[in-house]
Amino acid sequence: MNGDTDALITSPDPLHPANHICSLCHKFYGFGWVTGTGGGISIKHADHVYLAPSGVQKELMEPKDIFVMDFRTKEYLRRPKVLKPSACTPLFMAAYTHRGAGACIHTHSQWAVLVTLILESGAQHHPSHGKDVFCMKEIEQIKGISRGGTGSQEIAEGGRKLGNLGFYDTMMIPVIENTAHEEDLKDTLEKAIGEWPETCAVLVRRHGLYVWGKDVAQAKTQCESLDYLFQLAVEMHKLGLKWI
Amino acid sequence: MNGDTDALITSPDPLHPANHICSLCHKFYGFGWVTGTGGGISIKHADHVYLAPSGVQKELMEPKDIFVMDFRTKEYLRRPKVLKPSACTPLFMAAYTHRGAGACIHTHSQWAVLVTLILESGAQHHPSHGKDVFCMKEIEQIKGISRGGTGSQEIAEGGRKLGNLGFYDTMMIPVIENTAHEEDLKDTLEKAIGEWPETCAVLVRRHGLYVWGKDVAQAKTQCESLDYLFQLAVEMHKLGLKWI
Amino acid sequence: MNGDTDALITSPDPLHPANHICSLCHKFYGFGWVTGTGGGISIKHADHVYLAPSGVQKELMEPKDIFVMDFRTKEYLRRPKVLKPSACTPLFMAAYTHRGAGACIHTHSQWAVLVTLILESGAQHHPSHGKDVFCMKEIEQIKGISRGGTGSQEIAEGGRKLGNLGFYDTMMIPVIENTAHEEDLKDTLEKAIGEWPETCAVLVRRHGLYVWGKDVAQAKTQCESLDYLFQLAVEMHKLGLKWI
Amino acid sequence: MNGDTDALITSPDPLHPANHICSLCHKFYGFGWVTGTGGGISIKHADHVYLAPSGVQKELMEPKDIFVMDFRTKEYLRRPKVLKPSACTPLFMAAYTHRGAGACIHTHSQWAVLVTLILESGAQHHPSHGKDVFCMKEIEQIKGISRGGTGSQEIAEGGRKLGNLGFYDTMMIPVIENTAHEEDLKDTLEKAIGEWPETCAVLVRRHGLYVWGKDVAQAKTQCESLDYLFQLAVEMHKLGLKWI
């Protein structure tokens, strides 16, 4: 079957989704975001959804390992025989469907996990949302985060705000509880996306982060900004400083 | 002698054990796992056991430096003249013999050493095993760890579990005490392998980690997952959070 | 328009400002100084000011992305159509105008941000300047810092000191408060430059660092020395040690 | 003049001292050992002493930047015109003269500096030597350290021990106080070398480390092992654990 479908993942263009997913996985491995086969990434290109496989060494990924799904029919147009599709697939689809995202990244970053553990312990918490939302404000890097993940998300309360957060805005990232099987996160993740229209990401307790953007560049730079903020938050906590 | 045996370590295939050991040592050096000539790695290919030498700079290793042993006779088929075989050799053999492993990695990772020191101090401990086992649970990365190191280990208590640990399983890695000479760890390491049929690794107090897998990919990705979990455990401890 | 002005950014010389800005951005990305499109860099070459654009992935920057401004007229000689000039531009110009700098770097380094947060908390402070100046002394790396950023700055109090700080000198870096919009930092940054003639840099609370030098090499090595000192200061604070 | 002396630093062999110093400086820059032009390295090859220059960006060093001194006459055989010889030169010469070293490395590693600060604070100390010696024992990586730095140093108390430290030996590295000018460290460094015949290194308070070996490989791997032990010591101290 792959013989018929290799055209989907063959291109000399380094920005073709099949090539781009591989070069990003190599980079993310260097950041510790996808160590031990954890984490993943997906790019939506028109009606084709490109997906990294499950359980592979991310720094060795090649275009031939990439799955391709038809966004409308949800059927795989290309399935590498010896590999399994990522268990994150339904979660990536949620960002495409509900946010109009063009790319989605999942990391196991330790900073993300530690932030969820600190919240769980109650040592830092939000006055109304307790351990279920990560908040920061008045840190310049927050300006790297767009409203809704794409900067064009309609806000629930009638009005509409566009673009990125400002220095005096409070960034709020919802935290959902982990489940035994990754695909079972779909319902709570979709619920969080619905309840937090300004968020560009969802934290999963004791697990990691899902973050999206209108395209790969935005998903990646938002992932970098969030990871920076999570690390800063952990260091602040060690130094006895409050996040908000 | 090497003239006759160079064929054992000469191949254009980057995945040939002699080449693969070298490229992995270069990578592990970057992770701080084999700094200052510490640590080591071995690959078993059919009845040939490939071994990195002792006391060399791991980031400069070349195929000509590799030892090859016959697994059945335990005799060296290839011995580079100016080098000594790794003192870890009997420990690697234990994983091959008792677990059917296909690759084994030894690191001096600081996170592994720190975890054994925290346990020794009594500041974190297991209710029944005290300072002699490292436990974690309900962290997603635990799912990167296979039962018994290969996923097909027979469990002592009659039944049989296959595959990887789940999110709600407790990962338990035994800790043995260090000895003056590395080869003297053989008996306690074999005892730990016998007593902990589900473990994929053994921690050595104030020293480092031994981890194996059915093949190189599994040994390496399990080593990555464990190192991630050890680092997370140290950071959790700094933040006042319990491991279990 | 760019067709006419590409000559300004086209050179086979790796030290040409357009090429040099790109290679430095790639390096600084690796240090975590310009993650998530944050931070920036500028080089002044005779009367041409070269500027990295705003909001781009710094590790992917190419010469075609570079803005060029005439230092005397403050008019852009080259403006890439799809990009915006850096919001730091007025801040870089301040270092060129008031210090005779030849290069200026802006980082979002977490160590810089953490130092400003520790000062804000009052846990470390200067006897007379409180939270508004970062001080260190008797650390060898301070000798990597020049007086005034270029080593030839006239000192306000009549006399004149040249060259770099010594081991027994106290390094003092002023801290200004952040603003909602980066360009609004211009007035307080210029005020700080005026009031602290010996400084080579200005810290911006909860934001990052501006540092300059007489040329690129000095700006970069001073940025490295400061980042080293900020990281050391954070680690010292964690260990309960005073900075002065 | 250089025209006549370029033969001293020109070779296609990557292990020729002039090439080797450059490749090691590039590597050490990546480790944070020689950031901001700090630190240095020297190799002795027969009666020629090769020295990195002062105040240059270590990751950009080229063979043409290297100084060469005659070990017997202490005269420079090659002096790059625009550069200054390293202020560490008399300190490197001390290791060559008093220990028969073949290579010497000087780092500004933060872990080394932090260890000297922790000792200064009295929070960790040696029963008889107080803040003036760094001690560790029963950590496997100590076995990477040779007696006297070369493994063949005659020990003051009559007897003679060869080779590397064992797991149950106590590693003791003397700490000397910093001075305003690096060359003024010569006397106290020579005194420390004389008083501590088993040491392979001298720590300089609030400054960094000098470490040597019989050749480059030994100096470098000992520097790696020490840096590993200093980092481990800082982490142990954060966790409330004693070094001895």
TrEMBL record, chains A, B, C, D:
Cofactor-binding details, from the entry: Binds 1 zinc ion per subunit.
Pathway annotation from the record: Amino-acid biosynthesis; L-methionine biosynthesis via salvage pathway; L-methionine from S-methyl-5-thio-alpha-D-ribose 1-phosphate: step 2/6
One GO process term, biological-process aspect: L-methionine salvage from methylthioadenosine
Residues binding Zn(2+), per UniProt: 106, 108, 207
Highest taxon in the source lineage: Eukaryota
Domain Class II aldolase/adducin N-terminal: start-end pairs: 19-234
Active site: 140 (proton donor/acceptor)
GO cellular component assignments: cytoplasm
Pfam families per record: Aldolase_II (PF00596)
Entry keywords, A to Z: Amino-acid biosynthesis, Cytoplasm, Lyase, Metal-binding, Methionine biosynthesis, Zinc
Recorded GO MF terms: methylthioribulose 1-phosphate dehydratase activity; zinc ion binding
Cofactor: Zn(2+)
Major subcellular site: cytoplasm
The keyword Amino-acid biosynthesis is annotated on this UniProt entry: yes
Location of this chain's protein in the cell: Cytoplasm
Residues reported to bind substrate: 88
First-level EC class: lyase
Catalytic activity: 5-(methylsulfanyl)-D-ribulose 1-phosphate = 5-methylsulfanyl-2,3-dioxopentyl phosphate + H2O
Entry EC number(s): 4.2.1.109
Family the entry assigns: Belongs to the aldolase class II family. MtnB subfamily.
Stated role: Catalyzes the dehydration of methylthioribulose-1-phosphate (MTRu-1-P) into 2,3-diketo-5-methylthiopentyl-1-phosphate (DK-MTP-1-P).
Name this polypeptide is given: Methylthioribulose-1-phosphate dehydratase
